Structure formats: C-alpha cells, structure tokens
Amino acid sequence: MIYMYGLLDEKPVPKDVTEVIIHPSDSSTTIKEFAFHGCRSLVRITMPDTITHIEHYAFAGCDSLKYFQFSRNLVSIGRQAFWGCTSIQAIFLPPTVKHIYGGAFQLCESLRFFYVPEVIEHIGDRVVLGCDGLLTTVNYKFDYDDEVRYTMNNCEVNAWLMQRNSKFPLHRACSSTEVNPLTIESCIQEHGIERATEVDDTQMTAFHILCANPHVTGDCIRAYLALVPGAANEQDDTGTGMTGLHILCSLSRQDASTGYCIRAYLQLAPDAAEQEDSDGMTPFQHLCRNDVTFLDDRNFSSLMIWWYHCMPPQAETGKKRKRG
User: Fold this and answer.
1) More exposed terminus of the chain, fewer Cβ within 10 Å: N or C?
2) C-alpha angle with apex 199: 196 to 205, nearest 5 degrees?
3) Residues 247-282 pLDDT 10s
4) Do 78 and 185 fall within a single domain?
5) How far is CA 11 from CA 5, 32, 51, in A?
6) What is the pTM of this model?
7) Average pLDDT in the 128-151 region?
C-alpha cells in the first residue's frame, strides 16, 4: 500500500502502509513527531530535499523500514526518531545535520553502516545503543551509580561516531553524501592506491563503504574500479564475506541509480557476479530478495534477463555471452 503523506496532514497514517511518498510543502519542512510511529509494514520512504527536521519518535517502531535516503538539507533528527527500526542497515547523514537527539537510532539492530558529519553542534546520549550490527571500538558501559562514568563513556561513543574516519581519508570521501568521481580520483591520487586496501574500525574497505552509500552513482563505481580493479572482489572482514557487489544488491535503494551502479560494476568486473559470501549467496541472489523498483516488470524472468545483459559480451571467466 503506497501512502502519499503531506507535511500538514492532521489525519493519522494508516498502520498498514508499505511505502510512503512525502510531498514537499511550501509552508512546512518538518516530519511531525509520531507521524509514522508503529507502522510496522513500512518498507520504503521517498523523502524530498525540502525536509529539514524529523521530530521525536517520527519513525519509531517501523521495524520493516529498510529503503530511504535522507534529505540533503536535513538539520535535526529528534529523540528516538528511528528507535527500534530493526531492518535498517545503512545510514549516511548529510553535512547539514547539526542536531541528533538522544536514542535517535537506538535498537536499530541490523545497522552496519552509520556515518554522521564530522562537525555536529549537538549529539545526544545512547544514539546507537543496541545497534549490535555496528562494530565499534567503543561500547556503552552502564553504571547508574556513577553518572560521571556514564557521561564520559557516552562522549567517547559520540566522539568515535564523528571522528572514526579521521585516519582514513578514502573512507571519509566514500562515506560522504556528496561523493562524486572527482573526489574519489583525487583522494586516491593524493594518498596512494595502497590506502584503498585498508580496513577501518568496522573492518570495511573504502569501496565497501562506497557501495553502501545511497548517493553512489555508476560513475563513482567506474572511477574507483578503474584505479583499483582489485577492489571488486575484496570481501569484508566482518564475517559476512560480502563484496561491494553483494552490498549494492542488498543494501541500496534499489531504484534507477542502483541499476546503473550494478551495470557499471559488472561491466568492469563480471567475475564478481559468481562470488559467494559466507552464507553461500551470490550478489544476484541478494538482489532477488529485494523489491527491485528500477525495472518496470519486477518478475524474476525480467530481473534475470536484465542481469544477463549487464554483463560484457564476453565475460572474463571465458564464458561467451551472446546478445539477443
């Protein structure tokens, strides 16, 4: 069920919505508190760039929510705005964000990619508490008898969130919501190709981060792989064994941009299509599990034909692929 949401709507949103399109408004730039609270079937949100504020508990309890992209002009995220959104796996916040209030992403258990601006005016406590999928070098330690200890520990977690890429310039470039081919090429040329094989604190290479970024384009994929072709088959060290192509097929928005990224990837690295992750799944199998919106006809046969035609005429595996 697709629901068209107006920012000035007074009526409650039906709890059984699966997709929401938020209409831009000249008189409001705010998603109201509790607007989608408890919409447990909600999977996808289309958010316009006119949105500047997401109020408290706006999407709390939306445990099926997976596909969305934040407004490029977002300024604040309210208290527990995405509390308990257990299906969210990737969050990339724009540099315009200045305020993230307490528990904003608490109990987002599947969260693996989480990137915030390096400069934030206010970031509350317990922002990623219970996000077990996010591998951090620091963890929340609770000691209710020692408020000073907890406060210091919370500051340590928040500092890690903002400074995690200070020693990884290519990771920083690839996690930016303003990523583009020029910034990728310039960063690799400035810091050296060897930095492209580094893993950060979450055991990811910069290319894994790039493929998870919802703002990635096909040109970004081409730029990176043209300079670092070995990145195409590099698996992460988190235990999932995913390549960048697995990530593209499982985490991205699955819109037209995703289709261009996958095509660019396969044109330059067709062998990546056959690589399996730690669960024995190929990238195509991950794609089949998602709601692929970049095809008009979303059935399996259409998806398989589209995938087949993403390959170069003759793949590097030696298998000839005829057209038509």
Assistant:
1) C
2) 55
3) 999 886 667 788 899 999 999 999 999 999 999 999
4) no
5) 10, 12, 20
6) 0.89
7) 76
